[in-house]
Design brief:
This protein is about 10% helix and about 45% strand. It is mainly beta and about 475 residues long. The strands form four sheets. The chain has an eight-stranded mixed β-sheet with strand order 13-21-22-19-18-17-20-23, with no helix packed on it. Helix 2 packs across helix 3. The relative contact order is 0.07.
Length: about 475
């Protein structure tokens, strides 16, 4: 919103009347400092002036003569009304006051043509009729809200007992969700409250942890790829696998609403929270999968990590949490009903079933699925057979966070070429057991670009090394 010069001057004069030792130049300097501190795009000159007056313990009562935009918000504003669109909405959470009485709080992110803002809905407003039905892009009117400063200094809209939210069908110049969506390739550090799009690149996984306050937490991790094939790590804090479909195809399209971009250990990362909305192409019901078991690797906690292949020569990583594959052996053809399928990643749990089938000649065996080293390409999974040309070596690698992790590597060849095979952490132990001159079969390798553009093969938790007689 552009403020007329006379209005701004009128407010400056009101401040000088109450604080005569200030000059117009002093006030303008303070306005610039305040805007610089809060951040570009969050404060107008007029909003900064109200904050400066508050710093001096003074009050400016000049009413705004036009409807506010999000960019014009300032801490201390009361009974503001504005039109905006919904970006995302968190679940309502229950908290306790100091006296032990409960209250509810729900957060929402909204946007207009110039900016975004956080909205807090308190007590009964957190559960307004129809609030759960609000969708990203819906046009709403916020009525008689008040503005307070958030922990990071940015103004936050508060919806209390005297405030309200209404949906509206009027036309608006505020852009649609599709218009503000950014591809992975367009992202820059520091962007927040944004909508991003990309495609799934690899595995989606959940994790559990204990935060700094000793409370249990959860997060969903994935990698997304942009139009230029650049990939970025995603961490959605407070989310788990219940937030996504049970069936997600490889290269499924993804949209995340309400995330920020920050620098992580491996470059730029996308971070979201429990209010982030996840839109992934997929279905709720998994379908039976028929596959031949190429290798079975038991873990220390009794889980089976299985590499399988179907009749289209597609490799599957199967994690069996239910011990339902204990009846199976390498080479068997099985039919399984997974609980989840994320691309080529399959999860079996207590709700899954597995049964052995008669041998199906249309599904290739391990000897037919192996790839020659010369045919290996980046970002694919492979099984190879090769001879070890150099004694395997182990070294400790220091990460940015100061953690020391094991890396073992060996140089192998077949009759078409040579390549490095590497293993981190537990996979390093597999390489440590190998010796110079041995002929080995390795399943479940990932091909990645290494130094000087050469391709290297990396062991995964689904890999198995078998020595040939």
């Amino acid at each position: 919103m552009k403020i007329k010069l006379s209005e701004l001057e009128n407010l400056i004069n009101k401040l000088i009347e109450q604080k005569p030792e200030l000059s117009k130049e002093d006030i303008q300097d303070q306005i610039n400092l305040k805007k610089e501190k809060i951040g570009a795009g969050y404060l107008t000159d007029q909003g900064a002036l109200f904050l400066i007056a508050s710093d001096y313990g003074l009050s400016l009562s000049e009413p705004l003569k036009v409807e506010l935009g999000l960019k014009d918000l300032y801490a201390g504003a009361k009974e503001i009304s504005l039109e905006t669109r919904v970006l995302n909405l968190s679940p309502a959470k229950q908290f306790s006051r100091k006296d032990g009485s409960p209250f509810y709080l729900r957060t929402m992110t909204v946007y207009d043509s110039n900016s975004t803002a956080s909205v807090k809905l308190w007590d009964e407003k957190a559960n307004l009729p129809g609030i759960e039905d609000l969708k990203p892009g819906d046009l709403i009117k916020i009525i008689k809200a008040y503005v307070k400063s958030d922990l990071d200094g940015s103004p936050t809209i508060n919806i209390g007992s005297g405030s309200n939210i209404e949906t509206t069908d009027s036309s608006s110049e505020i852009p649609s969700i599709e218009t503000i969506t950014k591809d992975i390739s367009e992202l820059q550090e520091g962007q927040k409250d944004i909508v991003i799009s990309g495609t799934i690149d690899g595995v989606i996984s959940g994790m559990e942890f204990t935060n700094s306050r000793g409370q249990p937490g959860k997060a969903l991790r994935m990698r997304l790829k942009g139009k230029d094939n650049s990939a970025m790590r995603v961490v959605l804090w407070g989310k788990d696998e219940s937030s996504i479909p049970n069936m997600i195809s490889q290269n499924a399209k993804v949209k995340l609403l309400g995330v920020r971009v920050k620098n992580g250990n491996q470059g730029l990362e996308i971070h979201g929270n429990d209010a982030t909305i996840i839109d992934i192409e997929g279905g709720k019901e998994a379908e039976p999968i028929v596959t031949r078991i190429l290798s079975i690797t038991p873990t220390e906690n009794g889980k089976n990590m299985i590499l399988g292949v179907d009749n289209n020569r597609k490799l599957f990583n199967i994690s069996d949490f239910s011990n339902s594959t204990s009846i199976c052996a390498e080479g068997d053809v099985i039919e399984c009903m997974p609980s989840k399928v994320y691309g080529n990643s399959i999860t079996l749990d207590d709700n899954s079933f597995v049964r052995k089938l008669d041998n199906d000649e249309s599904i290739p065996t391990l000897s037919k699925i192996r790839t020659k080293i010369n045919d290996v390409k980046v970002d694919q999974s492979y099984c190879i057979e090769a001879i070890i040309l150099k004694v395997p070596e182990r070294r400790e690698v220091q990460t940015k966070s100061g953690e020391s992790i094991a890396l073992s590597e060996m140089f192998v060849e077949d009759d078409t070429g040579q390549i490095w095979v590497k293993g981190w952490r537990n996979q390093a132990r597999l390489i440590d057991k190998c010796e110079l001159g041995e002929i080995i079969s390795i399943t479940g390798l990932n091909a990645k670009a290494g130094l000087e553009g050469r391709i290297e093969l990396f062991l995964t938790s689904f890999s198995k090394i078998t020595k040939k007689n």
